[in-house]
Design a protein that fits this description.
Order of helices and strands: HHEEEHHEEEH
Helix content: 40-55%
Structural class: alpha+beta
Number of helices: 5
Strand content: 15-25%
Distance between the termini: 36 Å
Shape: globular
Oligomer: single chain
Radius of gyration: 18 Å
Largest sheet: 6 strands, antiparallel
């Protein structure tokens, strides 16, 4: 598991370096958004037009993620509002690509967060979060579950098998997506 974490961190550092090359005049420190619970609540209502019944911040290293319960069409639903860090917010095609991947996976039967359009009809909105900083913000469905590894004894052979099957299904779907993109 440690090797995977190190590989993800290495890939992310390569990505940040590519942004620094593409945007040499921009300060691309991670720039975790500074957003309080109350400000998150107001931002969600502004973007969606729906009241917040419950809100709490979820763990996140670089971004701000808020778990939000609201009512739409007389149905209670749970969503996540993601306020993207400054580095990735500077690269809108990257954020848009993440949205497109989630939409594609969802349409192809993969149980994953599904992005939701906000009031302006778009999936991603750039918002002035502080006086100096604008951040990409999007809303997605909340997928119920427990993070793998949150309990040392929770990783059983059965769970490992199911996780592998899920990742294989996701990998196959992404390969088809990439082939379709390459053809266009």
């Amino acid at each position: 598991m440690e090797a995977i974490v190190e590989e993800v961190e290495r890939k992310y550092q390569e990505y940040v370096q590519s942004l620094r090359t593409a945007y040499p005049d921009k300060d691309l420190s991670y720039g975790r958004p500074e957003v309080s619970i109350d400000a998150g609540k107001d931002l969600f209502t502004k973007l969606s037009g729906f009241p917040v019944e419950n809100i709490k911040e979820l763990d996140s290293f670089w971004d701000r993620n808020f778990y939000i319960s609201t009512t739409m069409d007389q149905r209670s639903i749970n969503l996540v509002m993601k306020i993207v860090n400054e580095t990735e917010s500077a690269n809108l095609p990257f954020v848009t690509g993440l949205i497109e991947i989630m939409l594609y996976l969802s349409k192809n039967g993969i149980n994953c967060p599904t992005p939701c359009k906000v009031m302006d009809g778009k999936y991603v909105s750039h918002q002035q979060i502080t006086e100096k900083h604008r951040h990409a913000v999007y809303v997605q469905t909340f997928v119920e579950g427990i993070p793998v590894g949150s309990k040392a004894d929770a990783i059983t052979p059965s769970l490992a098998y199911r996780a592998g099957a899920f990742l294989g299904k996701m990998d196959s779907a992404l390969k088809v997506m990439l082939r379709n993109v390459a053809v266009k």
